[in-house]
Amino acid sequence: VGGFVFLRFFNPYILETAQGRHRRVRDSLIMVTKVLQNLSNQLTFQKEKYMLPLNPYLKTKFREVSIFFRRLTNGADDYVDVDSAMGQPSSCSVQ
């Protein structure tokens, strides 16, 4: 479920905002989506050598992302407070 949410919702939005931007900004946003996709699938980087230094960080966040997805798919609430699900102070809610 988590991989699907990032693949179909979050990452396309991030890439859409990259359109018409400077190449360096666009490339950076593409890297952000790669990190988010690996986080959502609980995978570390293997083939992309330049991304290997991020693996220790990814490993520390797997549990938090898993908790976020559990809360997202809980179904007990009418809405999901994304910030709260990620353990942050609330700033917005998704209905």
Could you tell me the number of beta strands? 0
How large is the share of residues in beta strands?
Answer: under 5%
Order of H and E elements: HHHH
Shape: globular
- Secondary structure class reads mainly alpha
**Largest sheet, strands/sense/barrel:** none
**What is the helix fraction of residues, given as a range?**
55-70%
Low-confidence spans: pLDDT under 50, at least 5 residues? none
Q: For the CA atoms, what is the radius of gyration?
A: 14 Å
What is the typical, i.e. mean, pLDDT?
Answer: 82
Describe the protein's topology.
Elements: H1 2-18, H2 23-41, H3 55-72, H4 82-85
Model description:
There is one protein chain. By secondary structure, the chain is an all-alpha fold. 61% of the residues lie in helices and 0% in strands. The chain is built from 4 helices and no strands. It has helices at residues 2-18, 23-41, 55-72, 82-85. Helix 2 packs across helix 3 (55-72). The longest helix has 19 residues, at 23-41. The mean pLDDT is 82.
